[in-house]
Amino acid sequence: MCTLKLGRYLSFIFIGFAIIHGIALGSSYDVQLTLGCVLSNYVALQYSTYFFYPVLGGFLPIVIASSFSMLAYHNVRRIVRRQLPIVRRKLDKQITAMVLMRVIAFVCLVLPYNAYRIYSINFPTSQSMPMAYAVGRLLQAIFISINLINFAISFYIFILFSSRFRRQVKFVVVKKCWQRWKCWCCFINNQTEPDNNIEAHNSQMESEENI
């Protein structure tokens, strides 16, 4: 149903929406001496509490990812019943396992940060309480780090749960990257350099002939 052209249009639309949404929500923050950077607009506070973090940043992506993973699982079950080559069925099973594990990792990595953001927006900690403020900053750093793992963990999940992906990575690293690096190093070592002694000897002979 989705063509490449439609996919490009949807990508530009979503990128534009994300930029406009980020500017509008970012303009609602205010810097206070005791609380730091907090939401000062009541409408933005309610929006972040009841829609942005729980729905747009948490529930909606989880539902979409889970729905497509269930569709992939259903597709594999349907393929197993059909008379298809064994290699095709193995590949489809591997892809389904990769998708399911990616969704599980996505849920586990996104939910803690969203829950913390909802709590911290509604109950900000004042800097007048140093210990509570320091604990809050530490928890924020931990949950942000966990949330950022979500953007880098796909490669490692696919390495663990797909033998075909491991073979492909090994082929690219060993056969292509290593060979190119090896050829490049050999090319540098085999370069010829001019001999300064020969050049000096030639220049001396030319000067003697001129004399």
From TrEMBL:
Superkingdom, taxonomy of origin: Eukaryota
UniProt entry tagged with the keyword Transmembrane helix: yes
Subcellular localization: Membrane
Transmembrane regions: 12-31, 51-74, 95-118, 138-161
Keyword RNA-binding recorded: no
Principal location class: membrane
InterPro entries assigned: GPCR_Rhodpsn_7TM
Coiled coil: none
Boundaries of every G-protein coupled receptors family 1 profile domain copy: 1-158
Keywords per UniProt: Membrane, Transmembrane, Transmembrane helix
GO cellular component: membrane
Protein name, as recorded: G-protein coupled receptors family 1 profile domain-containing protein
Organism: Adineta steineri
Lineage: Eukaryota, Metazoa, Spiralia, Gnathifera, Rotifera
